[in-house]
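User: structure tokens for Phosphate transport system permease protein, please.
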Amino acid sequence: MREKTGILCLLVAGCSTVLLLAVIVFMALESWPVWSVVSPRDFILGTNWNPLAEPIQLGIGTMLVSTLWTALGALMLAVPIGLCCAIFLAEFAPPWMTNILRPVLNLLTGIPSVVYGFLGATVLVKFFEVNFAMASGESLFCASLVLTIMVLPYIISTSESALRAVPAAYRQASLALGVSKPYLTLRVLLPLAKKGILGAVILGFGRAAGETMAVLMLAGNTMVLPTSWFSKGEPLPALIALELGTSVVGSYHYQGLYAAGLVLLLFVLLINLLLALFRRERRSGVN
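Assistant: Done. Predicted tokens:
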């Protein structure tokens, strides 16, 4: 039975890997003609996106900057909140409260992103328009606020697991020396769990950078290089979602969008590879 389970897991893992490689190869083939027109450097760093112009302009630098503003802004808000929640759940909350809060956090990950987008559009956007006399409350900051709520469950659950993975001997030895619980948490447990917590941050960044619907509804969708967190912008996933349906199949516009998707996919994969590397180091450190 154990061998059959192992073979089944191996087959599932193999199929998943083949599927991922097939997606990468498919997107590379669809975007291949673009790379003969625009160099990868100009495509990634260029700030002009006009696939219908002559000569053609395919630069996604503006969208990449918008993506970084929204993702990093969300992390700046989510990491302190998520880390405090994880510490509370792992070290201070009574078991009955943890048993209630943890399923609630898991439920937050299952809410469709379009629902978060609707809430942001009807609450946050209206709030900024009414209270700050803005013609439109959409901004990268507004998108980051919603992304903060979306990535919080991932950061909390992963950080809590990292704190709970610290061997009990450290807690027992510290308490035997008479240190307080806050001192034990801040000076002993957090340094020991830092790699796992860093993995939680990387996971949250990957989730925020790849989000489409919420940023599409809240970021403003203007193709201008954002100069601040409160500017409007068009993150890369929003660009693909907005223009893929109106592009002519086989045109440079269509292939350029596939190239943008390939860049986004490789970017998120790189983040996940870093996460796997940190997890492996953490396990080897614990062992």
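User: Anything notable?

Assistant: The chain has one domain: 1-282.
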